[in-house]
């Protein structure tokens, strides 16, 4: 370009990164100044939509070539850059003469690689994929490049127009011409079949060859067979129109052809039909399997369709429908669902269950007092309304007598939970009991099982699956509340194998998630009366072997127990529902699309409410904070969490007992008493974690957690407490145990848990207490002696005793850090006990008191006064 007196020279240094972005610098101008100088005629960048201003001005390669081209170049700049050598071809419609396509685009000219990158980026901007070039290459070679904003010959624009049907079902696609001052022109009807030159008015006849050439490009782009010598006039079915709108409009616009659509079509939104059902039944509805008889009518806008019209519409798979003078874009998928319901009602008779489990449940189920006009409206008998309301609200579930053999007194909400589980079984619906921890999900399930086997003594056995860390709890609770039930614990290496497993010899099979994974090949062959998952969030990852094994189990009734707020963990929610009512929430990919993405990413409250309504019939959740439930809970509740030893702990335990038993034989008096206390303390540390007993350093947190079921359970429970927005105290006698829990909570759950010990200064103590009370952190670890007295920690609603003290008074003093004057909430105390060890035996001794005096119980000296036989019994590991 020749420099004029008004032209300024600008030198650019350019580098191209591996993403085909050009980094542009100038020794005399900043990135912002370069953007203003280069792009002032290029709207995409001048308004800051794609250019990035950092140390350099960063542009896609194709945009920089556009900026430097004749169309957008700053006329007052002479730009010096190595990329100028690409411009002659970039601006020429001969560029594609050098192009080949053999699965991908290539250029056989100099700088072919750069040109390929620039072209693909430019086409991608227009929505054109590389794969489409196989058919588009002839058009691009024949003057289709460079892509244009319009197709204009002198002052005449060549465009294409789509018109809706007038007298039949065919749409019309035709070429139209216009200028800036004239309306759209098409040839008169009598000249539709004439050659283009003959059909044109006199003023445009000289443009006929150019118009014919542009229309030929148009026909090529649409892959039509019509000859280009006549003006395009092409009839299209509705299916053709859908494909045209989906695939062709953006392509034509990319090549500069304006596409003129009916104005109503541009703004038309998908419309769901409104279906009014008048439902009736010959009797009061008491079951999901009762038949529903109904008449129906379909409406679109203010228009009503009879059954024949509706069926014709669905079977023709129409999306664009004209009724009278109005046009509608119909949601075809939803229409197909409605047709399926109507077909079923006509041919097979529909039941209440069919309506409940359909994918449009949330749209067709009415509220008793519902002002919202649902898309599928019902005029229901009052009995059906009440039944559907029962499924949702659970207030009118039939009451049942508590089984007389149950050894427990149920609270009102626990009785309702038992009644709900039984009702869901009767209706053949899965159930998720998601009460807060501490509200007694276990006793509700045991009541359900007791009633089941009282009513059906010969029923198939039920299977309860739980984490290993709570297996002992289930054993104890079943023995406590339902001692008459025949329970088989399918666990340990000595468990029954495939050839000896006979579940029909018992009523309840109790096992663990890990055992199920190993034995699924024969457990899946039994159809259980009920399959129950405790801590059901364990199957949240549907790709694990454990989760896949669980889904192979056969059960007449599937129940999930969980204390975590499943409504807030959507992937976990899907996994649980896929177990209790398979298919109800669709596939996981559809659930991600329909629920997880709009709820978690977009916080869509309508979708959240839609999901809540959908899961409500299958979910029962009560919380301790719900005042409306009037739970009448005690101020404090103490529970014992029984945890088995791991195989490693059991082996170390037995070896140490054998070793020390021999050494005690030669000791007497104070020396023997001292040895007993040392021995008991080492065994207690071993019950906590083998790393404490072996004096090992802290290593991988996950591995540490798996070496002790007690530690694993404490970590899980603490995580649940924090997830529920509550706070807890964790007491331990051993600094090593406190540090181990502190380390694992931080590493595995990202929970910061300060540790108050005897070495904590007064100022540090005061700061920790104030921080905990104000909610700065949810968990506080305390050594039993340092934190057992003198502290006010009423922000805690849970107290966890990681290890048991021989003196109950010391434990009670520690508990009273939370349960004291100023505490306004329910406090739950968890005492962790390892099964079969001295922890369980001492707990039993203290419970029974063994006729010991209060003085002895309040100290630990009674332990050293035990006889050789009593001591041996105390230490022996019971498997």
TrEMBL record:
The keyword Nucleotide-binding applies. CDD domains: DEXQc_arch_SWI2_SNF2, SF2_C_SNF. Transmembrane segments: none annotated. The keyword Chloroplast does not apply. InterPro entries: DUF3670, Helicase_ATP-bd, Helicase_C-like, P-loop_NTPase, SNF2-like_sf, SNF2/RAD54-like_C, SNF2_N. Pfam families: DUF3670 (PF12419), Helicase_C (PF00271), SNF2-rel_dom (PF00176). Keywords: ATP-binding, Helicase, Hydrolase, Nucleotide-binding. One of its GO terms (molecular function) is ATP binding. Residues 422-583 form the Helicase ATP-binding domain. This is ATP-dependent helicase YwqA.
């Amino acid at each position: 370009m020749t420099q004029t007196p008004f032209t300024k020279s600008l030198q650019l240094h350019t580098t191209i990164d591996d993403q085909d972005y050009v980094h542009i610098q100038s020794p005399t101008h900043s990135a912002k100044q370069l953007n203003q100088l280069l792009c002032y005629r290029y709207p995409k960048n001048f308004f800051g939509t794609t250019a990035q201003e950092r140390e350099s001005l960063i542009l896609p390669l194709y945009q920089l070539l556009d900026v430097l081209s004749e169309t957008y170049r700053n006329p007052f700049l002479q730009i010096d850059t190595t990329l100028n050598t690409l411009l002659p071809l970039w601006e020429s419609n001969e560029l594609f003469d050098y192009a080949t396509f053999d699965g991908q685009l290539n250029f056989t000219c100099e700088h072919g690689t750069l040109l390929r990158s620039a072209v693909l980026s430019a086409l991608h901007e227009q929505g054109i994929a590389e794969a489409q070039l196989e058919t588009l290459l002839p058009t691009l070679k024949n003057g289709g490049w460079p892509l244009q904003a319009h197709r204009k010959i002198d002052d005449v624009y060549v465009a294409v127009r789509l018109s809706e049907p007038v007298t039949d079902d065919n749409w019309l696609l035709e070429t139209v011409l216009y200028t800036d001052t004239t309306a759209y022109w098409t040839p008169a009807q009598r000249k539709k079949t004439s050659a283009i030159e003959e059909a044109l008015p006199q003023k445009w006849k000289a443009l006929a060859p150019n118009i014919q050439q542009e229309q030929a490009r148009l026909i090529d782009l649409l892959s039509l067979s019509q000859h280009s010598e006549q003006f395009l006039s092409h009839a299209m079915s509705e299916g053709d129109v859908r494909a045209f709108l989906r695939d062709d409009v953006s392509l034509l616009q990319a090549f500069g052809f304006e596409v003129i659509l009916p104005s109503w079509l541009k703004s038309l939104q998908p419309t769901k039909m409104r279906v009014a059902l008048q439902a009736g039944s010959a009797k009061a509805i008491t079951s999901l399997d009762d038949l529903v008889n109904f008449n129906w009518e379909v409406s679109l806008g203010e228009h009503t369709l009879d059954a024949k019209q509706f069926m014709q519409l669905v079977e023709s798979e129409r999306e664009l429908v004209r009724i009278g003078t109005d046009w509608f874009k119909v949601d075809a998928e939803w229409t197909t669902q409605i047709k399926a319901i109507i077909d079923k009602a006509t041919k097979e008779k529909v039941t209440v269950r069919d309506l409940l489990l359909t994918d449009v449940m949330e749209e067709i189920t009415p509220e008793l007092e519902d002002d919202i006009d649902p898309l599928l409206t019902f005029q229901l008998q009052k009995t059906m309304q009440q039944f559907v309301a029962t499924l949702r609200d659970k207030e009118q579930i039939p009451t049942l007598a508590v089984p007389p053999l149950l050894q427990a007194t149920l609270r009102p909400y626990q009785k309702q939970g038992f009644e709900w589980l039984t009702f869901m079984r009767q209706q053949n619906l899965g159930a998720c009991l998601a009460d807060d921890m501490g509200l007694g999900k276990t006793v509700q399930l045991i009541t359900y099982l007791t009633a089941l086997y009282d009513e059906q003594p010969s029923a198939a056995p039920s299977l309860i699956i739980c984490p290993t860390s709570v297996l002992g709890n289930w054993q104890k609770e079943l023995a406590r509340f339902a001692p008459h039930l025949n329970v088989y614990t399918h666990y340990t290496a000595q468990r029954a194998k495939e050839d000896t497993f006979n579940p029909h010899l018992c009523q309840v099979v109790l096992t663990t998630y890990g055992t199920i994974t190993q034995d699924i090949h024969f457990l899946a062959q039994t159809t259980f009366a009920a399959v129950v998952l405790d801590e059901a969030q364990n199957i949240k990852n549907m790709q694990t072997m454990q989760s896949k094994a669980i889904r192979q189990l056969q059960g007449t009734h599937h129940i999930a127990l969980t204390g975590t707020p499943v409504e807030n963990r959507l992937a976990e929610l899907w996994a649980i529902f896929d177990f209790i009512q398979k298919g109800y929430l669709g596939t996981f990919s559809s659930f991600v699309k329909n629920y997880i993405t709009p709820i978690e990413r977009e916080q869509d409250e309508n979708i959240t409410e839609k999901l809540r309504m959908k899961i409500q019939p299958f979910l029962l959740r009560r919380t301790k904070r719900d005042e409306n439930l009037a739970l009448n809970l005690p101020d404090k509740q103490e529970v014992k969490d029984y945890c088995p030893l791991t195989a490693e702990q059991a082996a170390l335990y037995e070896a140490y007992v054998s070793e020390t038993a021999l050494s005690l034989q030669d000791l007497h008096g104070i020396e023997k008493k001292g040895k007993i206390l040392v021995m008991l303390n080492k065994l207690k540390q071993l019950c906590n974690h083998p790393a404490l007993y072996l004096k090992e350093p802290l290593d991988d947190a996950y591995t540490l957690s798996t070496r002790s079921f007690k530690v694993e359970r404490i970590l899980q429970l603490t995580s649940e407490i924090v997830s529920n927005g509550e706070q807890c105290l964790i007491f331990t006698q051993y600094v090593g145990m406190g540090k181990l829990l502190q380390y694992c909570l931080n590493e595995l759950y990202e929970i910061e848990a300060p540790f108050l010990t005897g070495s904590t200064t007064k100022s540090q103590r005061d700061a920790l207490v104030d921080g905990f009370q104000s909610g700065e952190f949810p968990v506080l670890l305390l050594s039993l002696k340092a934190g057992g007295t003198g502290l006010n920690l009423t922000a805690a609603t849970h107290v966890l005793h990681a290890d048991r003290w021989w003196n109950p008074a010391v434990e009670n003093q520690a508990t009273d850090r939370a349960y004291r004057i100023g505490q306004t909430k329910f406090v739950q105390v968890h005492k962790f006990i390892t099964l079969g060890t001295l922890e369980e035996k001492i707990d039993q001794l203290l419970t029974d008191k063994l006729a010991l005096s209060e003085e002895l119980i309040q100290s630990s000296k009674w332990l050293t006064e035990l006889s050789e036989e009593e001591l041996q019994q105390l230490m022996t590991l019971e498997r």
